[in-house]
Amino acid sequence: MSSLDYQTAVASYDSLNSIAILAQHIHYYINGMLNVFKGGSLDIKDKYSFDFPLIASQKEWDTFLTTFWNDSEEFANLIEQMPDEKLKDVFTDEKYGSYKRNIDAMIEHSYYHLGQIVLLKKILQNK
What we know:
By secondary structure, this protein is mostly helical.
């Protein structure tokens, strides 16, 4: 994504979400889990996970990417530092399962949408 200009990132194709929307969607969940890892509450809701302001310039796209990369790195570092016992603990509420379950789900969720981003990028570059 770092090699994409914002016009490609926000370009629409058919009825699919743009690369920018998919990236923001992934970040929404990373940021929500990061808040919990840092001792905060789980404030994210699925119904808001695609609601983002439009990115209207290269500067906005670059700023978003910097935030995305920094939060992703912090997320990974906090997982690295997490004691193994914590992985078995309940993640905010029993209905959400353990920390391990949520970390695994975040990895799978990110790979799913990153795959969509790769395909969209190929489609948009071949238009």
